[in-house]
Every structure is written in C-alpha cells, then in structure tokens.
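Suppose you are handed a protein chain with no further information: no name, no annotation, nothing but its sequence. What can you learn? This example shows the usual starting point.
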Amino acid sequence: MPRIHKVQPNSLAEELGLTSGDDLVRVNDVTIRDLVDLQFAMAAEEIELEVKKASGEIWIVEVDKLYDEDLGVEWEHPTLDRVKLCHNKCVFCFVDQIPSNMRQTLNVRDDDYRLSFLHGNFVTLTNVKQDDLDRIIQLKMSPLNISVHTTNPELRVRMLANRRSGEILQQISYLAEHQIVMNTQVVLCPEWNDGPELDRTIEDLATFYPHVQSLSVVPVGLTKHRRGLHKLRPCTSVEADRTIHQITRWQEKLRTELGVSFVHAADELYVMAKRDVPPKEYYDDFGQIENGVGVIRTFLEEISQAKQSCVRLSPVPNRSVGIVTGVSAQQVIQDITTDITKEHSVQCTVFPVTNNFYGTNVTVTGLLTATDIIDHLRGHVDGLDTILLPDIMLKDDDDVFLDDLRVSDVEEALQTRVTVVPATGLGLFMGILGHTQHLPPRRRYETTLQDGISASRSVS
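A reasonable first move is to predict its three-dimensional structure. Written in structure tokens, the prediction is:
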C-alpha cells in the first residue's frame, strides 16, 4: 500500500488529519496500486478515502475538493509502489559513467513507463509486458517518451544488451494503432547507429506520424569514468556537421509529406559543428525542448522579448557580474552579454567552466559541480558584485550541486555573493541588470530519481 512519508503544510492531507506513516488503501473503492491510479482517482471532486493509520486504525474519510486539488503529500516511493528498473546494459548508459561515490539516487537506473507519462522520462519499453501496453491504452497514458536509438532489431539488441529490445517497432505499432502519442529519441553513437542506420530509423519512425510526433537525435555523452565499458568515442565536429546535413535533407522531405520537420538535431550537434541554430519555425512545436532540442533558440527568443519588455529598466549602478556556464554554451552566453552591455552600463565576465568532475567531454551546464566552479573561479572574482548561477545546476527545490556541495559553500570558498537565477533568457537578463526580485520562483524540474541528469542537456 502507498505510505505517506511527509504531509505538506496547509494541504488537504493536513486538513484531513493524515500523518507520516499512514497507508492509503483505497480512493472511491479503487485500490491504489501506483501514482497513475491515484491521479485518476483523485480527479473526482467528491472522494472517499480509506486510510490505514500508523496505529493500525482504519479511517474512512469523505471530502469535497477542487477538481485539480491533490492530497499534498510526499510518498515513500515516487510511484507509490516500486519504480520499474532498467533491465538493459546500454553501451552508452550515462549512469554507468557516474563516479561510485555519488549519492545513491544518481545510480538508480529507472525505466518506468509511468514516469514517462507523468514526468516525461525517456523509456526503452524493454521491461514492458502486454498487460502494461494494454494498461497504457486503457488509461490513455499519452504522450510517452521512448528511447529508440535504432529500429534495426539486431543492432538494438546489441546496443541495449537485451534480447527483448528488438521488439520496439511492434510495440510502437501497437501503441500507434490505439492512438497513443509518442516522442522518440536516438542517442547517436559514432559507428553504431549513425549514417545509413540513422536513415533507416528516421524512415521507419516517420511512417507512424502523427502518433509518433517527433524524433530527436542527441550526441552520446561520455564521461571519464568509463572503465570496463564498451569502447565509444564522441562525435567529431565533422560528424556533427554531416549528421545535421543528413537530418536537414530528411526535414525537407518530411515537411512536404507530413507538414512538419519531424526529426530534429539536438543543440549540442550545432555547437559541435560550429553552426548557428535554426530559426524557431524549424522546431515545429518545440516538443522536445527538455531533451535539448531548441533550447538555444528559445533562450535567444526569451532574451529578445526581455529586452523589449524591460526597455526602460536600468541596471543597478556600477553593476559588475560574473556568469557561470558550461563550455558548450560559452559562445551563446558571450554574444548575449556583449549585446546587453552595449545597451546598459554593466560589466559582465563569462566563466565557461571545464567539467573535470565528469571529464572534459561533458560540456553542458546542468552537469557542472560546485567543486569545478570553485576551482575555475578562485582568484578571478575580485571586484564582482555577484556570480550568477543558472538553477539547472542544482537539485530540485534545494541548493545542492551534483557533488553535494551547496551554494553557500561556493560563496564561502570564493568570498563572493552568488545569485541563483532561472535558466531562462529573462533570468539571465534580469540577473545581469540586478533586478532578480522581479523574477518568478525557481523552476521545478520533474527529475524523479536521477536529479540533475535529465537537466544535463540544458544550455545556459
């Protein structure tokens, strides 16, 4: 039975007298197996709860509530029962490349279709049985995000090291027949699933449009902690450029046939190839922005809007700020800050931090650690009013970095004030000008288990 870990203040659960250790047995006579059951059951405005108190006493509680009001509790497990774990041994798995001394949650390999529906996680479907597929269809659990990587059955078995992984096209076909919407991805590994294999994957998946809405192509991420793993190498700039050219050809074809681009290259490929990102029209509905597709373009659009809406806003006098970013975003951030400083009297220093913790092949901002930030900035921040840090470096609703240091540790080590800003164009713009009091609260990233990993492809 789902067990309550913590009751949030001023919540419906607190009002009903629920406490830590209570078990939720049923809602409106529906036995609650997992978070999906709970969300559907709680959609009613009149509910009856059967609760087993920590003392063993059974409560029956009736309550009228708003349609979208939840109980307001934290559960012992993210899905209420147990998270479905990954049964694969993917050649490119990022979790296998994490240092052994990291916190336990970063080493959990989830592959749970329920987290895909609820939080947008990508899943491989290799641990999904027919009953699971039928439940997805019955409850209309759509959209789902699916890691395909290749539609070649033999190649997918080799890449995922799971004999069931060759069934992916049959699974996608079954879900499409029953109107389930899917977004798909390929983690591009040179000499594995690129070139003609990528052509095959794009062609196969495009036949399922509009039920398969999109396909993103993301370059493999490799850390320095790959001992005992398959020999992989990162994409070269030439290969990145060639892949973009290949995808562009498919987009031109598919826009004629489907009316959408369908397949998109992740921003990292444009950075690797030293190409400008495309205009916003290229990205259809920005459906895979959380997977690093269109983040730079969105960021540039947000900066433009911020400049227009805040045209009369002046910076704090004699403002001098430092801006921390990953290496891959250096040029984008530098161009933006140069443009801002031309119009406003403020000094900006961009600090592109090399990732020594994971290895220099990891260049995105979301995987920077406090240790590397301190090492890079020490001795270079004298005279700065503050250092701007985008919130994607930090665990949800907390100030903890991936190496378990806090923002206060960075401030103490550098003896300089640190300001955490949303990883948006408005966040950067207002942070530079010194008006962060006008910013909305930090964004909550729905990264259930691998806190920080799913933010790893953000740009700023």
